[in-house]
Amino acid sequence: MTDPAQRPLLFLDVDGTLLPYGGAQLPSTLEQWGQWQHPSNPQLAKVVPGHGPRLLALPCDLIWATAWMHDANEVIAPLLGLPELPVADLPDAPEEDETGVLHWKTRTLVETAAGRPFLWVDDEISDLDRAWVAAQHQGQALLHRVDSAIGLTESDLSALDGWLKDVSAAS
What we know:
The chain has 171 residues and is of the alpha/beta class. It contains six helices and four strands. It has helices at residues 30-36, 51-57, 71-80, 106-113, 127-136, 154-170, and strands at 9-12, 61-64, 118-122, 141-145. It has a four-stranded parallel beta sheet, sandwiched between helices. α5 (127-136) links the parallel β3 and β4 (141-145). The longest helix has 17 residues, at 154-170. It is globular. The N and C termini lie close together (7 Å). The model has no long low-confidence stretch (mean pLDDT 90).
């Protein structure tokens, strides 16, 4: 069994992951993103409450890795029945995503993991991120990309659980 002090980390994104886009008009300004992250956002009805217990049952430590930062604890955690979670100290998100460059979260998540096994669940992970993590991270890592239109699914949760069991068996 993995030492609880060294349990794997699960870095959890919100937008496109726990909050699927599913045809929604996405914000394009900082003001619109502020409204998106407000409890009145009608898109929040797409959050699947059953994901909370499933995530809590995984043998890992959950950490928010989202541009929502601490707002994830205020808005998303209650919808999922999650306790207040730690928040990765991410740099500011870029105003526009650039293709062909490392994702803005990647370096910080590897630094935060500090050699511990980790999963990163996000809708924006690329092969470039996977290659960089494989070269730079000393521990095991799974960068699991979800479909932003539908968000996290039962199949995704099963894949995370399977990876965590493999990591636990190997330690």
